Amino acid sequence: MNFLEYLSYFKEVVDKNVEGWFYPIDIVIMYGVLNHLQKDKPGCVCEIGVAHGKSAIMISTFRNGEKFVLYDIFDEEARQRAEKNIYDYGNARDLVWKLQDTTDLKFDDLDFENIKLLHVDGCHEHPAVLNDLTLFSHKME
Prior knowledge:
- The chain has 5 helices and 4 strands; from the N terminus they run ααβαβαββα.
- It has helices at 3-17, 24-38, 54-60, 76-89, 126-137, and strands at residues 44-48, 68-72, 95-99, 115-120.
- 29% of the residues are buried.
């Protein structure tokens, strides 16, 4: 999908139908990163903090069959709403849901390899973000 299609799809479809936050600057940066990663070797994609799935929708449109690991601490009803949004507006194939607080995880709890993209959008407090970056960086090449 070229940038204009990506931007138009977000503005005309996703932004109108899905609650949440994913701002124009986020769209531009994410498109550039995802477009570059398309040319890279395969690996799973991981998002920490899914909420209604707005950013996950846009990330999911770029996957080439890679596993998409999604972490959040919401209840099952909220997870189903986010999954429906990803299914309706993105690519819901190969989603792996982890309903866990990432600040409670240890390295051995990460049961996947080779993260090619990590989108950290969970707890926005400095210690939690630093913990997520430290923990998950060991799975990135």
